[in-house]
Amino acid sequence: MTRETEEPLVAGLLLAAGGGRRLGGRPKALLAHRGRPLVEHAVRVLREGGCEVVHVVLGAAAERVRAEARLPGCVLVDNPDWAEGMGSSLRVGLASLRAAAPPVDAALVSLVDQPGIGPQAVARVGAAYRSHDTLAAASYRGRRGHPVLFGAERWAGIAAEAVGDRGARDYLEAHRDAITLVDCSDVAEPYDIDTEADLVHLE
Questions:
Q1: Which helix (H) or strand (E) holds 46?
Q2: 167-198: per-residue pLDDT in tens?
Q3: Of 35, 58, 174, 176, whose CB neighbour count within 10 A is largest?
Q4: Nearest Cα to 186, choosing from 136, 150, 138, 149?
């Protein structure tokens, strides 16, 4: 079954499994931002950017996230191997999308620890979808970043190379000529919340 003739279904895929090792073991999904868990903010960004379907990959403290965060309508997927790094979460998330109904045409992947990236960047990258073969990514002052968009035909190849903390980096490097870069420098800041010093970015 194909949906190519209909409005494409670009699903949000939020990677939110990290344990916050450099934050004293505080799971990033549960960091407070604007009075609520950071994972709620990240989901809202995807939704406001046009992703009606959102799958969230959980790992560290998954049960606490389920209990404390309000994530109605999201598909929550547990990654038991989250400590292996982002690659394992990407594989789990793509497998979840592959099993989704109705079929998903593309995955728009974002990271829970980048609150400086808002709905405008999500919408811009989502609009770059052309076919199941599409590869697109936000760029910031010439450097590729998140969110990234993977057409469904790309998922198997990406999953095969997603290991450790590199996520899709190796696949994207090998296919750089196929990537549509979408400049988001004017609407987003791609910083990560990795260390105690980065907590200044949270509100």
A1: helix 38-48
A2: 899 999 999 999 999 999 999 999 998 888 88
A3: 58
A4: 138
Q: What tokens appear for 178 in the block?
A: 């196929």
Using CA atoms, how far apart are residues 100 and 98, in angstroms rounded to an integer?
6
Q: State the CB neighbour count (10 A cutoff) for residue 199.
A: 14
- Alpha-carbon dihedral of residues 68, 74, 79, 82, nearest 10 degrees? -60
For residues 67-93, average pLDDT? 96
DSSP state at residue 35: T
Task: With residue 48 as reference, give the H or E element that holds it.
Answer: helix 38-48
Q: Which of 57, 61, 148 is nearest to 109 (CA)?
A: 148
Strand pairing of 135-140 and 179-183?
parallel
Q: How far is CA 2 from the centre of its chain?
A: 24
What torsion do the CA atoms of 2, 72, 79, 13 make, to the nearest 10 degrees? 50
The secondary structure element, H or E, covering residue 55 is strand 54-58
d(CA 161, CA 78): 20
Residue 26: name the closest of 202, 194, 143 by CA: 194
Q: Residue 192 corresponds to which tokens in the numbers above? A: 């990560």
